[in-house]
Amino acid sequence: MQDKNISQVVISRLPRYFRYLGDLKDEGLERISSGELSKRMNVTASQIRQDFNHFGGFGQQGYGYNVNYLYDEIGKILGLDKRHNLVIIGAGNLGQALANYMNFEKRGFFVKGIFDCKESIIGTQVRDMKVKDTSEIASFIKDNNIDIAVLTLPKQGATEIAKVLVECNISGIWNFAHVDLDVPDSIYVENVHLSDSLMKLSFKIHENEE
After folding, report:
1. Please, what sign has the CA dihedral across residues 196, 201, 203, 206?
2. Looking at domain 84-196, which CATH architecture does it have?
3. What is d(CA 184, CA 162) in angstroms, rounded to the nearest whole number?
4. Each residue of 76-106: pLDDT tens digit?
5. Could you tell me which of 25, 133, 164, 209 has the fewest CB atoms within 10 Å of its CB?
6. Is the CB of residue 144 less than 8 Å from the CB of residue 127?
């Protein structure tokens, strides 16, 4: 049974476990020990066991982990056994790149619509979708059972659209805009600030040089 007090650090490692286990499945490997997994992932075996113990352990001492079972169970913990319908708001280069990323469907994430406010972009085709006017967002979310909105907008636009999403009772926002959104705690926001990530990399390089 999942411990409700699991730290965000542990949760942040789950997608990486899931990714590595997917690779092991593709290799046809049926069973793996924490020691073998630690060598592949460069994480200590004790850390792996501690992380998995938060969710019931999944393995037997001396017997290791069943790769398919562990992959499926971590997928369930991550909610990947359910379908998630997405809309992308912002049909620029990043929005179009995300709309064209085919692996989302393999994880249960389906892009149902893409929106923009620019007349020059509205009506153009992205993948198999026509870009819709942002004025249609509220009705589209209601009619298509959308639970996640992806924001690839400038700061001001993202702030305004977030207000609409709050009124729509959206479940989650994947935010690529360079702004921290002010939304109720009931709406989960995952920020992906690309420049922040690049600055972290710069810091590490600079620290190493010193």
Report:
1. negative
2. 3-Layer(aba) Sandwich (3.40)
3. 11
4. 999 999 999 999 999 999 999 999 998 899 8
5. 209
6. no
